[in-house]
Write a structure and sequence with these properties.
Blueprint: H1 2-9, H2 11-22, H3 28-35, E1 47-49, H4 51-64, H5 67-70, E2 75-77, E3 99-105, E4 110-116, E5 120-126, E6 128-134, E7 137-142, E8 146-149, E9 155-159, E10 165-171, H6 173-178, E11 184-186, H7 200-204, E12 225-226, H8 228-238, E13 249-252, E14 267-273, E15 282-284, E16 288-294, E17 297-301, E18 304-308, E19 313-316, E20 322-326, E21 332-338, H9 340-345, E22 351-353, E23 365-366
Parallel strand pairs: 18-23
Antiparallel strand pairs: 1-19, 2-3, 3-10, 4-9, 4-11, 5-8, 5-10, 6-7, 6-9, 8-12, 13-14, 14-21, 15-22, 16-19, 16-21, 17-18, 17-20
The chain binds 2,5-dihydroxybenzoic acid (GTQ) and fe (ii) ion.
């Protein structure tokens, strides 16, 4: 190896690299070790954002930014410290493929309607009375609901209730940026007016896994919101059986007309870990962003312990070993998003379980959040 490095650093090679660069050419023999490693070496790092901090900055943003003044959403995104040197303008993102944010809307405010080639989803953290209007359907949001807004659909937000309303956004912004596929349009009016009954799609699917026959034809988002009570029922009933050793009790949000993930590029799950649950460690190619909906505990990611509680967000980068432990006396519900559909489309999804030490990592240190 030393010999090889010496060769790459030799004057002869360095000079020749300069010659090539002049012609906008590059030597593969120099680049290949960085481009093709043995296994994924993600730029995103394991990280946690505490709810305490997120709540504080959202409350500060309330004073500084309004959708009326800025013409945009009051959203603050989770910037992974490992991804700060990216284009454009050193824009970070949460993982290499996904952007996640917390968004706050106040009573009486509207966030203008627009559409884009990025797919979006929302998970509702706090409040009630706000809606997202998607292709003419007002979807009222309640705590624990999951909303899907795949690419190309008009959407805006409004708030008819009292008190602040906060949710998580996740979009495939970095993926669409990377492939040069960005299109964005504003709606001709500030906000789209309803053309369908309120909560039309969730009312059509009140029974869960039975499908209105019109949806035998694949549709982009036949079900726009998945109500918390239905998701919770599914998990609570699943929990009478044996949990998956790695993922506990987990369900995935689907497009009922295709059976595929609700968003084409982002998978979304809700997981239930019973009190005292301790998963075994594994790793996979896909990266994950977790949001702690209820409960507390910790995850060990590549040997580092990350303590989490209600409202926190944390990142498990590609190919990072991870396992979860619940320390609360109540069960934990964790919402998560992952880029698994992208990995599967490119046929690079792989998974490996941790075999030594009875499937548990050695904890080397505890992560301290800023
Ligand atoms: O609410 O439509 O956090 O378009 C980022 C981009 C939210 C949204 C974000 C968006 C939205
Ligand atoms: Fe949007």
């Amino acid at each position: 190896m030393a010999e090889k490095n010496d060769f790459f650093k030799s004057k002869e090679v360095q000079d020749f690299n300069q010659v090539l660069a002049k012609y906008h050419l590059g030597p593969l023999w120099n680049a290949i070790p960085d481009l093709m490693h043995k296994e994924p070496t993600p730029e995103a790092i394991p990280y946690i954002w505490k709810w305490e901090t997120l709540q504080k900055v959202l409350m500060e943003a309330k004073e500084i930014f309004t959708p009326d003044r800025g013409g945009e959403r009051r959203a603050i995104y989770l910037q992974n410290p490992g991804l700060l040197n990216r284009q454009p303008w050193g824009w970070g993102s949460t993982t290499q493929t996904m952007y996640a944010a917390v968004q706050l809307i106040l009573p009486g405010e509207t966030a203008p309607s627009h559409r884009h080639t990025q797919s979006a989803l929302r998970f509702i953290m706090e409040g009630s009375g706000a809606y997202s209007i998607v292709q003419g359907e007002r979807i009222f949001m309640e705590k624990g609901d999951f909303l899907t807004t795949p690419k190309g659909l008009w959407h805006g937000h409004g708030h008819l209730g009292d008190g602040p309303m906060i949710w998580m956004d996740c979009l495939d912004i970095p993926s669409i940026y990377a492939i040069g596929g960005t299109f964005f349009e504003t709606y001709p009016e500030r906000i789209e007016q309803p053309s369908l009954p309120d909560d039309y799609s969730s009312k059509r699917y009140a029974g869960g896994m039975v499908r209105p026959i019109a949806d035998r034809v694949p549709k982009v988002a036949p079900l726009g919101s998945f109500k918390w009570q239905q998701t919770k029922n599914a998990l609570d009933s699943l929990s009478q059986f044996e949990p998956d050793p790695f993922d506990g009790y987990a369900v995935e949000y689907l497009n009922p007309s295709t059976g595929k993930t609700a968003n084409p590029t982002i998978a979304a799950w809700m997981q239930l870990f019973p009190a005292g649950f301790r998963s075994k460690a594994h790793r996979h190619t896909s990266s994950t962003i977790y949001h702690v909906f209820r409960g507390s505990g910790y995850s060990v990611i590549n040997g580092v312990q990350f303590h989490w509680e209600k409202g926190d967000y944390f990142v498990i980068p590609n190919w990072a070993w991870h396992e979860h432990v619940v320390t609360s006396t109540e069960e934990a519900y964790l919402f998560s998003v992952s880029d698994r559909p992208i990995m599967e489309k490119f046929e690079v999804q792989r998974e490996e379980s941790y075999t030594s030490n009875q499937g548990h990592q050695e904890v080397t240190k505890e992560f301290v959040a800023v």
